[in-house]
Amino acid sequence: MRPDLPRLETGQLDDFIDAGGAEGLHFVGGGALVELDALELIGCIVEGVSFANIRFRHFDVQDVFFRNCDFAGVILSDRSRLTRVRFGETRGIGFQANGGTFTDVEFVGGNLDLSSFRMAILQRFGMRDLRARELDLYGSKIQTGYLLNCDLTSLELSGAEIQGLALHGSNIERLRGVSQLSGVSISQNQLMLLAGTLASEAGIQVGDDIVDDLIQAVGSADSRIG
Hints:
The protein is 17% helix and 42% strand.
């Protein structure tokens, strides 16, 4: 995206709203809230625009950079398509993109707590240096992705189909979907931190007292035999 794109300032956002789509423009919103339910963009920069709480029936963007935009509470339709898109310093608490198709998409910085990409197709998809607590990737199809240096706290991967997903540097206290972890890579330090979670998900009991209980149970059975 070229730095010399024609700019539309805050006062010209009506053009943005009425058109519902544009090509080769730089929108500067200054935090202004827009109200629309369909968006098509090609080769644009969108800066400082709030899409908060919009339910999009149509969302198709290509070669777009969203910078300092508000996507909190946004719901994308399951037919949404994002191709070669970057989100920088996004406020996206509660962002829902279930069933959408993301190709060459990256989120850098910002807050995506409680965001959901359930059943989405994620091809060359990444998040880094951001907060995304309670991230939900249930049933998603991930082909070459990463969640790097993110504060995730809880990560849902149940039912996901994963072909390459790096989690290095991310804080993960709870991980669901251990059976889907083939294709996931983590650091040695993360392995130590996740050992308890992995054991619990696999049904492995941890603790020396378990051995004592088993010995006592077997001894009790022996006494009855004798």
